[in-house]
Write a structure and sequence with these properties.
Elements lengths: L8 E7 L8 H4 L2 H9 L2 H21 L11 E5 L5 E5 L7 E5 L5 E7 L13 H7 L1
Antiparallel strand pairs: 1-5, 2-3, 4-5
Length: about 130
């Protein structure tokens, strides 16, 4: 059974690939960049793309796309799955969830509702049309 909701939502999927970690200095908040540098080298790219995906999901949810600079808000994923969000807007009440989609990919969702499904169900367009 599929569950759909009417709340604004942003979803982003990123393929984890080699990246110059130091571009995060001009893209992300200083706090996020410093956190990337504190990670062991072998974890930095995964963390970079976790942040990128979380940030993309937020700017999509609020409808601003890349007009919302990534350094204007901070996201801190915790080891327990909690995600801490800090922004200068009011209200700053958004919720995030990350999913294991497939090896080498990160999927993030952002919405104003605190409830998320436990897992993602991949569906093709025909299957979605049958549910709607």
């Amino acid at each position: 059974m599929a569950i759909f909701h009417t709340a604004p939502i942003g979803i982003d999927v990123e393929k984890i690939r080699p990246v110059d970690i130091h571009i995060a200095e001009r893209i992300f908040s200083d706090k996020e960049y410093q956190e990337i540098l504190r990670k062991p080298r072998e974890e930095q790219e995964n963390y970079f793309f976790d942040l990128w995906s979380l940030k993309e999901s937020y700017v999509k949810a609020v409808g601003k796309g890349l007009f919302q600079p990534f350094h204007s808000f901070s996201i801190t994923p915790k080891n327990n799955g909690e995600i801490i969000f800090a922004c200068n807007e009011s209200p700053c009440r958004w919720f995030f969830k990350q999913y294991n989609l497939a090896e080498g990919y990160t999927l993030s969702a952002c919405t104003i509702q605190a409830q998320f499904p436990e897992e993602v169900t991949l569906m093709d367009l025909e299957a979605i049309e049958q549910v709607i």
